[in-house]
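Predicting holo structure, S-adenosylmethionine bound.
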Amino acid sequence: MNGIASATGVARVTARGAERWTRGHPWIYRSDVAAAPDAAGLISVFDPRDKFLGQALFSPRSEIRLRLLERTHRPVDAAWWRGRLAACLERRAAIDASAYRVVHAEGDGLPSLIIDRYDRWVVAQLLSAGLETMRGDILAAIADVLQPEGILLRHDNSARQREGLPADVELAMGTVPESIDVREGTVRYLAAPWTGQKTGAFLDQRSSRMLLAAEARPGGRGLDCFAYHGSFALHLAARCSAVVALDASAEALERGRENATLNGFSNISWVEADAFDLLRDYDRGRERFDAIALDPPAFAKSRSSVPQALKGYAEVNRRAMRILAPGGVLLTASCSHHVRRADFLEMLASAAADAGRPLILEQVLGQGVDHPELLAVPETGYLKGALIRAMS
Ligand SMILES: C[S@@+](CC[C@H](N)C(=O)[O-])C[C@H]1O[C@@H](n2cnc3c(N)ncnc32)[C@H](O)[C@@H]1O
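Done. C-alpha cells:
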C-alpha cells in the first residue's frame, strides 16, 4: 500500500465498499471491509488495487465500520478540525437565534459528530468509536472556534452503546448551567442541556416555528399539539390572541409556563392531555383554530412499525385538519427516521380525503438549514413537514 497519511492504521475495502464513497455516501459496512486493524481510530483506506481512497473513522464493533472523514492525505489534527468547524459556523451566519446546530454530523461532512450551540455554551456528541479517539483535538477546536464558557458531552444515547462506548453525561470544559435562556427570533425559551430531550431543545424545528407564526392570522386562535416546553406556542402567542399548548408531560408543560413568563405572555393555556383524546374532543366539540402545530414524537421506532405509525399520524392529522378554521394553517411534522417523505405526503393526502374538506399543500418542509440533509445520504434527513392551509 502506498501514500502517507496522518492516520494510524490501514484498511482495505471491497470494490462495492469503495463505490459507496464514489457515490457520495460516507459509510462502509463491516461486510465490505476486507482487512482492518483491531483498535478504533483514524485509518487510511485502500481499494482492492491498493489505491488510496481517504482517511476514515474506524469502529471495530459497529456494523458501520468506516466513516469517510478526509479524501486527501492532509493531516487530521487540531488545525484541520478548527478549519472544518469554522466553515460550519460560516454556513450558519444568517441564523436569527442564539441556539442552533453548528455541526450536523454526516450532513456537514463530519460523520458521527453533533455540536449544538446554546448561547455561550456548547453541547456535543461524539457518536462513534473512531471519533472518540479524536476527542482532544475536537474539544480544542470547539474551544478555539466557538469560545464557549463550557462544553457538555450529552453521551447518554443508544448510538454510543452500539459502538461499545460509555453512555453518560460529562462536563468536558468550564461550566454549563442547568438552564440556558436562548433567543429564537423574537422569542426566548429555556433550554435544558443536562436533562432536556435531544441536547436540550428541539433545534431542528426552529424555521418551522417561525414560519407558522408568520402565516398565522393576527389575533386568531392557536393550538400547539405535542408542545414539549411550548416552542411553537411561544411563537404563536406573539401573533394570536389565545393559544392552547398541549402535551402529555407535566414536567415539559411546567417549563412551558416558565417560558411564557420569560416572554411576558399570558395568552397561553397549558393543557396536560393525550393529543389523540384532546383532538378527538375538539373535533367532536367543533372547536376551530387558525393556526395549528402538530409535532409528535417519532411514532415509528423501527421499519416494521411504520404501518402502525402511519395510522397514528393519519389520525391526528385528520383531526387537526377538521378543526382548522377557514383560511387557517396547519404545520405538521414527522421526525420518524423510518417514515420516508413520500410515505408522509401520502398519509397527509389520505388524511385530507378523510377530513372531507379542501386543503392546500402550501409547502413541503424539512429540517432547518443548520441540520443539512444530503440527498445522497438519506440517513442525514429524518424530519419531514408540510404547511397546509384550509380553503377559506
Ligand atoms: C417532538 S416533541 C415536540 C417538540 C416541540 N414541538 C418543540 O418544537 O420543541 C414531542 C412531544 O410530544 C409529547 N407527547 C408524546 N406522546 C404524546 C401524546 N400521546 N399526547 C400528547 N403529547 C405527547 C412528548 O412529551 C414531547 O414533548
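The mean pLDDT is 96.
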